[in-house]
Amino acid sequence: MVLVLAIGDIHIPHRVHDLPAKFKKLLVPGKIQQIICTGNICDKETFDYLRTIAGDIIVVKGDFDENPNFPQSKVVTHGNIRVGVLHGHQIIPWGDAESLDITARQMEVDVLLTGHTHRFEAFESNNKFFINPGSATGAYSSIPDTADPIPSFVLMDIQGNIVVTYVYKLIDGEVKVEKLEYRKGESGKVL
Questions:
Q1: What is the pLDDT of residues 45-64, one digit of tens each?
Q2: What pTM, to 2 d.p., does this model score?
Q3: Which contiguous run of DSSP H or E holds residue 182?
Q4: With contact defined as beta carbons under 8 Å apart, do 136 and 169 qualify?
Q5: CA-to-CA dists, residue 163 to 9, 25, 117, 127, 131, angstroms
Q6: Distance separating alpha carbons of residues 180 and 27, to the nearest angstrom
Q7: What are 123-154's pLDDT values in tens digits?
Q8: Backbone angles phi, psi at 142, to 5 degrees
């Protein structure tokens, strides 16, 4: 079992000052084995904070990241599950299911993590699982239909061919959690 935090579109300090306090209370060291960030961390202090949660951190370059060492994309393997990561500004149209599916096939991954839209989304298509963890801070986005993003992040519990996904959203000041499940090699709906 590997517990992976999928987080992105943080935009500190440009659009917001900090992660929501209720999220920070949940993100404690010692529980999460790996962090995968879909980009737009924006500052070294936020990167350093994430490192205190888990030393194993993978970040891809968002369209507002200035760190030239972040790669444009990355593939991470956990057992039988291949996870592809990219920010999402490279997907045209942004967040488009068909374009995401093409990208997942090109990257030869089972799970594709993207960001950029600041809106949580998860769905299964063609035996692949697609996750956008949204914006962890609820940072403003100029993309239509995302004027007031809901702060969110995702924890993925990867066990063999199964990815159990816990979605954390901050709604009306309360943290709401939703559980989804993807089984590699099984066609079907996400719970």
A1: 999 999 999 999 999 999 99
A2: 0.92
A3: strand 174-183
A4: no
A5: 22, 24, 23, 13, 11
A6: 20
A7: 999 999 999 999 999 997 777 666 678 999 99
A8: -90, 0
